[in-house]
Amino acid sequence: MVKPSLLLYVDLVSPFAYLAFHVIRTSPVFKDVEATYVPVFLGGIMKACGNTPPMNIKSMVRLWGKSRADA
């Protein structure tokens, strides 16, 4: 039987990436998984591609502020 594998691109500054890394390393669910980690800098990728982060779009910020107030 082939051992399951996982390729994870880890954004170096993301707390969510750290949580995923920690869960994969410590959870018994992933004990038989061969994980390969590829460090990336998502901010640099977005800048190189010309993408604007959502927090820099004024209409998105207003929408998020409204949805937070409604919650």
What keyword list fits this structure?
71 residues, alpha+beta, two-stranded parallel sheet, 3 helices
Q: How would you sum up this structure, described in words?
A:
The longest helix has 13 residues, at 58-70. The termini are far apart. The protein has a two-stranded parallel ribbon. The chain is elongated. The protein is of the alpha+beta class. Helices cover 46% and strands 20% of the residues.
The fraction of residues assigned to DSSP E strands is 15-25%
Count of extended strands: 2
Terminal-residue CA separation: 48 Å
H/E element order: EHEHH
Integer average pLDDT: 84
Output the structural class: alpha+beta
The rounded Rg comes to: 17 Å
Number of helices: 3
Helix content: 40-55%
Largest sheet: 2 strands, parallel
Q: How are strands sequenced across the largest beta sheet?
A: 1-2
Catalogue the unreliable spans: none
The dominant shape is: elongated
Give me a quick take on this structure.
This protein has helices spanning 15-26, 42-49, 58-70, and strands at 5-11, 34-40. With 71 residues, the chain is of the alpha+beta class.
Helix/strand layout:
Elements: E1 5-11, H1 15-26, E2 34-40, H2 42-49, H3 58-70
